[in-house]
């Protein structure tokens, strides 16, 4: 049986960034619950707990030579998809009463290492969704 083909470089870079973000958050005492949670309409890279708060984390990684900061890639459309996935997660687990927030971890990969910046409470659901049409059970 032949081994699967290697992942494209951008996927390996993204996975390494998520690994670095998971280590960073774990080092801060966050309990990582899930990685790469997918729901109709969106995905959340990392879901964790910070004390009594449920945290939905978007990880953006940029390699050497990339233009712009990684966090600038968390566009309104991306925030919307994250919020939709977060809503699905809360509904599936009946966690609507739990305090939540949206964080971003920006990773800049350099030869031989990386720099990770954690941005707690980077955006709110009101920034991501038209809350007049947002349904919460």
From TrEMBL:
Q: Which HAMAP family match?
A: UPF0102
- Protein name from the UniProt record: UPF0102 protein DesfrDRAFT_0910
What family is it from?
A: Belongs to the UPF0102 family.
- NCBIfam families in the record: PRK12497.1-3 (NF009150), PRK12497.3-3 (NF009154), YraN family protein (TIGR00252)
From which residue to which does any coiled coil extend?
none
Q: Which N-terminal stretch is annotated as signal sequence?
A: none
Superkingdom per UniProt:
Bacteria
Q: Name one GO molecular function term.
A: nucleic acid binding
> Which is one Pfam family of this protein?
UPF0102
């Amino acid at each position: 049986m032949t081994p699967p083909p290697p992942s494209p470089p951008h996927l390996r870079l993204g996975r390494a960034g998520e690994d670095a973000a998971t280590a960073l958050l774990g080092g801060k005492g966050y309990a990582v619950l899930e990685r790469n949670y997918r729901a109709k309409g969106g995905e959340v890279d990392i879901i964790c707990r910070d004390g009594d708060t449920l945290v939905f984390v978007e990880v953006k990684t940029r390699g050497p030579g990339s233009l712009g900061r990684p966090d600038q890639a968390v566009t309104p459309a991306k925030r919307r998809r994250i919020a939709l996935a977060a809503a699905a997660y809360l509904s599936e687990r009946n966690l609507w009463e739990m305090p939540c927030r949206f964080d971003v971890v920006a990773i800049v990969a350099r030869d031989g290492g990386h720099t990770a910046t954690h941005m707690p409470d980077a955006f709110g659901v009101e920034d991501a969704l038209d809350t007049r049409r947002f349904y919460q059970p």
